[in-house]
């Protein structure tokens, strides 16, 4: 019984302990898509951008939506209303952008 309780405690510790640090830029099993659009605004506290993006062939229609940014602080990204491109990472449970840069 003590062994089972210890194992349960360790599993809970591992499951709950990973949320505080920065997330990796890539994860196993992800799909990658190039995405282009206009950076409309940003939320520096949540490290997200609101983007009006073009259609992503084979994945998503054009739309406006929020994206978490990994690997960079959104305050350091191109200014609002800039045309940008990025890499969209998609897993079964999450999506996020990396490599956000200004384009003409």
Structure description:
The structure is a single chain. The protein has one helix at residues 2-17, and strands spanning 31-43, 48-53, 63-68, 83-90, 95-102. By secondary structure, the chain is an alpha+beta fold. The model is unreliable at 1-18 (pLDDT under 50). It contains one helix and five strands. The protein has one domain: Beta Barrel (OB fold (Dihydrolipoamide Acetyltransferase, E2P)). Strands 3-2-1-4-5 form a five-stranded antiparallel β-sheet, with no helix packed on it.
The CATH homologous superfamily: Copper binding periplasmic protein CusF
Helix count, DSSP H or I runs of 4 or more residues: 1
Gross morphology is globular
Indicate the structural class. Answer: alpha+beta
In total, how many domains does the architecture comprise?
1
Integer average pLDDT: 84
